[in-house]
Amino acid sequence: MAEEKTLDIGVTDALTGGAAVYGLPQANAVQMAVEEINAAGGVKVGEDTYMLNVIAYDDKANPTEATNAVRKLIDRDGVKFILGFCCSGATGAVASFIANEDAVMLVGNAAERSITTGEISNLVRTRPPADYTGAAAGTFVAQKGHKKVAVLGALDVGFYASYVDAFEVELNKAGGQIVTRESFGLKDRDMSPQLTKIRELQPDAILVVGYVEPAAFIYRQAIELGIDVPRYGFTSGSEEQFLRVASSEQMEGVWDLRPTELTLLSASENGIAYHENYTKKFGIAPSPSSPYAYDQAYALKHALEAAGTVEDTAAVSEALRQMPVPPEVVMQYLPVDGKMFDVNGQAYTSNGAFQWQDGNWVFVQDLPSDAAAYSAFLSTID
User: Fold this and answer.
1) Going along 91-221, which residue ranges are E strands?
2) CA-CA distance, 151 to 215, in Å (whole number)?
3) What does each C-alpha distance from 371 to 133, 151, 227, 340, 346 come to in angstroms?
4) What is the pTM of this model?
5) What is the pLDDT of residues 260-304, one digit of tens each?
6) Which of 78, 244, 327, 377 has its CA 20 to 30 Å from the CA of residue 175?
7) Angle value at C-alpha 179, between 178 and 185, nearest 5 degrees
8) Closest among 151, 194, 157 to 171, alpha carbons compared
């Protein structure tokens, strides 16, 4: 008879603070996936069956807190498999040393490109890098005929800056230009000085890149200042998160150009079920990016079963790199060579243009996405 055992897995994410709009839904998503996996019989590894148990710590999206959280998981709790990681600064700090640990790191929403350019064999990421999406967004905005785009963003954050850089390259190819790059801090809430300067430049579009709450203030204050041009963004926030700051009328017409994340009009059957189950369990709709972490849990389940071990982390890491896209995932992944993760440990989704219409994010169309070409490019970066 197979013996039933317990396997601890770790989660480190922003459970409090400004980044909790991404981190807390990710942690919730992992917990929900684990409960589903356990209810379906657990993880079958060799002759044993494991029930999963989650140990979660709050890293506050802070590099030091994230390092301390991972050290506790590995050194004190004996955890070998760590999920979550919504924000790039904290994630990059852990990625800098995880290669030397007997552990596997599964990264979610953190979009800084360098996380998967370091040839770290025991790290994989479910969200594509920001510049992969930024290039597609630049092409989309150029096709809308915009020639003068003003950028307002958290540009001291690497992955937002790389999104804008890739966006600009494609915009320039079509004869457009970025007329100004204005910055804000992640805790800023009054964007009227930057928006007043932007208004004087008379752009024909605005691009907003940043966390949900400051982005919502920008969208609201742009309307209040009479800036009547199309607004594009890279935020990945849910309707509920934006409506805490801006009215639906102030949000009307805003575009979000991002990986094709959870929005019901673009969701698969898995996505619709995920949205329903998450909402029922936690009393709030899931954020669009939260399934990156949900999908981590199922990717880990399949890798453990394929590797046939919970002790040999190198074997589990290799199984992750070789697996096809698991059937339970929510995001719409684009396999490279038939595998969920490429040689860099990077997964890719399609990119989508979403627009706020009558109180909801509505999926409008796919954006150009060439996962294989970007994967080849990523492999050339040190």
Assistant:
1) 104-107, 123-125, 148-153, 177-183, 205-209
2) 12
3) 11, 26, 36, 11, 10
4) 0.86
5) 887 766 678 999 999 999 999 999 999 988 999 999 999 999 999
6) 377
7) 85
8) 151
